Amino acid sequence: MLTSKRSRSYIEKITGCLNVPNRFENLNGSKCERFFSAFGRAIQALSRIGDEFWLDPTLKGLALRAVNPSHSAYSCFLFSPLFFQRYKVGSGPSSVPFKCKLSMKSVLPLFRCLTSIERSVDQCQISVSSSLTDRVTVQLFCRHGITKTYNLHFQESEALQAVFATHLCPNMLKCPARLFADMVMHFPMSQEEVTLSTSSLRVSLRNYCEEGKNHMKMMHTQMSLHPDEFDHFELGEDSDITFCLKELRGLLAFAESHCLPVSVHFGTAGKPVCFSVEDLVVEARVVLATLTDSESRSASQPSGVVTTSEPRWRSPNAPRPCQRPPVPQTLMF
């Protein structure tokens, strides 16, 4: 059951729980808008990753996960039970944890126009049932006694999970989301990939130019910052990593709207990079594949056969996906 009043930043503490399995509901009142701002922006961020997302109610909280079709980008938003006014996950010997996979096309329209919803909705309730219907029910209790009910059918699926040990990354950056947003705003929405370069003297972000394109007709953009601009700067080794920008924009918008700092854990080219935000009641991360050194240099120095190393990604009890082309590197789940 979803709440919205701030405990630390924008969420109210839990006040109780319903005795109904897998049901979540927010408070009545004017503060409902803050719930939609957080939960809705999480859905919007996941829509930039893939066409499907996983709804996973656990004892640690409600997890929303998504992965792109090429398995080169993964995102997860974990809302703690403290995020909800009432949070109840089915318990008992006959209770089986739900692992729901829903179509993004059926969920995104509910949270697309957040401004309009914030003005008209007083309460939201989400419940999951797998007894006979296999559906997720979303009820919006609006003003003037209007109730909107949406029944979304889901497909039971294995839990989606990426294995990424951030403490093993030699490099780490942390700064306000606004700083990253100011850097990204200089790149057009059509820009697919960018290169992040770090050294002891500067941190730069520039657009990536693929091999075969006419570089004379492209606008080259590069932003550079001194390490002192960051709240935390830890550099184990110089690196140049190239990753997709589209999947990252949603997380940056979420972090900026709630004034949350963004942390970046990364290593050398060819290894995944992790962007994450963390608050008292919500955690979010986006893990992106990066190009290998030979792929990054191919823009100026074409190379022959390109090889990739496989990072450690998996989905429990899930088969390995088919081999993908080496650009970008494939993340394994």
Number of strands: 19
Structural class: alpha+beta
Helix fraction by DSSP (H/I, runs of at least 4) = 10-25%
Specify the biggest β-sheet. 10 strands, antiparallel
- Helix count from the secondary structure assignment: 6
Gross morphology: elongated
The CATH architecture assignment of the largest domain turns out to be: Box
Query: Strands of the biggest beta sheet: in what spatial order?
Result: 10-6-2-3-4-19-18-17-11-15
CATH topology of the largest domain: Proliferating Cell Nuclear Antigen
Low-confidence stretches: 1-22, 26-32, 299-333
Q: Report Rg.
A: 21 Å
Region (Disordered): 297-333
Catalytic activity: Exonucleolytic cleavage in the 3'- to 5'-direction to yield nucleoside 5'-phosphates
EC number: 3.1.11.2
Subcellular location: Nucleus
What's the short version?
With 333 residues, the protein is an alpha+beta fold.
Task: Give an account of the 3D structure.
It is a single chain. The chain is α+β, with helices and mostly antiparallel strands. The protein folds into two domains: 29-162, Proliferating Cell Nuclear Antigen; 165-272 and 279-291, Proliferating Cell Nuclear Antigen (Box). Helices cover 16% and strands 32% of the residues. The chain contains six helices and 19 strands. The chain has helices spanning 32-47, 104-107, 114-120, 177-184, 246-257, 293-297, and strands at residues 23-25, 52-58, 61-67, 73-79, 86-88, 100-103, 121-129, 135-142, 147-153, 155-156, 171-176, 193-198, 203-207, 222-225, 232-234, 239-244, 261-266, 273-278, 282-288. Strands 10-6-2-3-4-19-18-17-11-15 form a ten-stranded antiparallel β-sheet. A five-stranded antiparallel β-sheet has the order 5-1-7-8-9. The chain has a four-stranded antiparallel β-sheet with strand order 14-13-12-16. Strand 17 and strand 18 (273-278) form a beta hairpin. Helix 1 runs antiparallel to helix 3 and helix 1 (32-47) packs antiparallel against helix 5 (246-257). The protein is elongated and about 60 Å long. Pfam families: Rad9 (PF04139). Residues 318-333 have a biased composition (Pro residues). Residues 297-333 are annotated as: Disordered. It catalyses: Exonucleolytic cleavage in the 3'- to 5'-direction to yield nucleoside 5'-phosphates. Belongs to the rad9 family.
